[in-house]
Amino acid sequence: MKAVILAGGFGTRLRPLSSTRPKPMIPVLGKPNLQYILEALEKVPEIDEVILSVHYMRGEIREFIDEKMSDYPKDIRFVNDPMPLETGGALKNVEDYVSDDFLVIYGDVFTN
């Protein structure tokens, strides 16, 4: 099963925090929110791949994954949104990479 993390928004409601970093990279208790999400998904054995749908400041997200999550045990795929897309557009953009059941989570959601 695939997990899709929608991580492409501008985070305008979180400004000024999101002026210098994408929403999923805003730290909560010392680590980026995206890290909490990935750690939670790591515990779900049915999930074999995480798809990150990215747009705004996507380079910072990719750098974080490459540097801090390089030993992550599941495959991580980046899908670049060519332009800012709402939730429906972002999901449409990843449709070639998912089939059947999949999980969708927003990259700025803090939950357990």
Briefly say what this structure is.
It is built from 3 helices and 6 strands, in the order βββαβαβαβ.
Structural description of this entry:
There is one protein chain. It is built from 3 helices and 6 strands; from the N terminus they run βββαβαβαβ. The chain has 112 residues and is of the alpha/beta class. The chain has one domain (2-106): Spore Coat Polysaccharide Biosynthesis Protein SpsA, Chain A, CATH 3.90.550.10. The strands form 2 sheets. A 4-stranded parallel sheet has the order 5-4-1-6, sandwiched between helices. Strand 4, helix 2 and strand 5 form a beta-alpha-beta unit. It starts with a strand and ends in a 6-residue tail after the last strand.
Task: Walk me through the topology.
Elements: E1 2-7, E2 27-28, E3 31-32, H1 33-42, E4 49-54, H2 58-68, E5 75-80, H3 87-93, E6 102-106
Parallel strand pairs: 1-4, 1-6, 4-5
Antiparallel strand pairs: 2-3
Number of domains: 1
- Please identify the structural class as seen in this structure: alpha/beta
Proportion of residues in β-strands: 15-25%
Q: Please give the number of β-strands.
A: 6
Distance between the termini: 20 Å
Strand order of the largest sheet: 5-4-1-6
Total of helices: 3
What is the mean predicted local confidence, pLDDT?
88
Indicate the CATH architecture: Alpha-Beta Complex
**Rough outline:** globular
CATH top level? Alpha Beta
Query: What would you report as the Rg, rounded to the nearest angstrom?
Result: 13 Å
User: Considering the protein shown, what is the CATH homologous superfamily?
Assistant: Spore Coat Polysaccharide Biosynthesis Protein SpsA, Chain A
Stretches where pLDDT is under 50 for at least 5 consecutive residues are none
CATH topology: Spore Coat Polysaccharide Biosynthesis Protein SpsA, Chain A
Largest sheet features: 4 strands, parallel
Q: Assign a percent range to the helix content.
A: 25-40%
